[in-house]
Amino acid sequence: KNEVEQSPQNLTAQEGEFITINCSYSVGISALHWLQQHPGGGIVSLFMLSSGKKKHGRLIATINIQEKHSSLHITASHPRDSAVYICAVHGGSQGNLIFGKGTKLSVKP
Amino acid sequence: NAGVTQTPKFQVLKTGQSMTLQCAQDMNHEYMSWYRQDPGMGLRLIHYSVGAGITDQGEVPNGYNVSRSTTEDFPLRLLSAAPSQTSVYFCASSYWTGGYEQYFGPGTRLTVT
Asked: How high is the pLDDT of residue A93?
């Protein structure tokens, strides 16, 4: 079993829809990251969180440490949100990340 | 700041050739790491460094060497390229801020034939 599981693997939405991507992990963590990767592009950090909730524009990330679960929400989705969203956790020492396999989001106009 | 830079962006090697992927950061981050990204596998840690002169192995270190002579540079060496090393390679640097805030380079797409 992977230490970081994401769901769904693929997600297609219509522009304007509310989107939720889920991440569950099985290891103790110091922080969880949500990353974004556009097709053929680099990786950008969206959020790092260790408790509660963070918001940046139309993106919201939440984490429940007791349940070992995090969600990434996108409100009023737009075609430019189409990307792979990756959940990653600090499971070991020295800042090493353990990654989920990513959720490929496609937002249709 | 340029952030994290990687060169080359694309590379094609023949089996058995060696090469070095370059990574540099100008943010004075102590922690740097190399990941590879393969379809269906997610990103996996190859090697990492917690500061100049200190390196350690990650999940998939075989076939790769690293060194960290300065805080800025963290090159990844492929000793004898194999088709299994065809992948996209990302370098990252990070610093502690209640968790390690991550900065990724743009990636190097390597094909070994």
From this structure: 57
